[in-house]
Amino acid sequence: MKKYLILLVLASIFSACSNDDNRMRNPYLPDYNFSANINMELPKYTDLLYTGNAVYVDQLGVGINDVIILNTGSGYAAWEASCPNQELSSCSRLDKEGIMAICPCDEAEYSLFTGQAEGKRYPLKSYRVEVINQTMIRVYN
């Protein structure tokens, strides 16, 4: 009887676990590998030295439709600048407004702190950020 009880408990535990692969894989945004060093001493990126500021990184080969980086105060968040809930098109590049990213296709507003938008299935696609020193970071996938 003990064996059956243990087997039942283990079966319920394993069946309760879910795989996040479907949630994390966005069918609209392909995965491209890239790596880019961002020098915040350059005028284009100096806003990143201050908390709450975000900038576009529009270097060739970085992201799909570029990358948006935000200084969160405790680090940096890097997001794909493509609407995560739309097919890639002429309107799928996000517009940056303060700490929000707006999708011109459907007017969805995504937080650059969390990557989430109310009522949307997919959040913004995040990228990794490595702090090299006080004025240099590396963004990569």
What is this structure's SSE topology?
Layout: H1 2-16, H2 21-24, E1 35-39, E2 54-57, E3 67-71, E4 76-80, E5 95-97, E6 100-102, E7 109-111, E8 126-133, E9 136-140
Description:
This protein is of the alpha+beta class. The chain is 13% helix and 29% strand. The chain is built from 2 helices and 9 strands; from the N terminus they run H-H-E-E-E-E-E-E-E-E-E. The protein has helices spanning 2-16, 21-24; strands at 35-39, 54-57, 67-71, 76-80, 95-97, 100-102, 109-111, 126-133, 136-140. The strands form 2 sheets. Strands 1-9-8-4-3-2 form a 6-stranded antiparallel beta sheet, with no helix packed on it. The chain has a 3-stranded antiparallel beta sheet with strand order 5-6-7, with no helix packed on it. The longest helix is centred in the N-terminal third of the chain and has 15 residues, at 2-16.
The DSSP helix count reads 2
Number of strands: 9
Helix amount: 10-25%
N-C termini distance: 51 Å
Mean pLDDT: 88
Structural class: alpha+beta
What strand line-up does the widest sheet have?
A: 1-9-8-4-3-2
Point out poorly predicted stretches. Answer: 17-23
Order of helices and strands: HHEEEEEEEEE
Biggest sheet layout = 6 strands, antiparallel
Residue fraction in strands: 25-35%
Summarize the structure.
This protein is α+β, with helices and mostly antiparallel strands and 141 residues long. Helix content is 13%, strand content 29%.
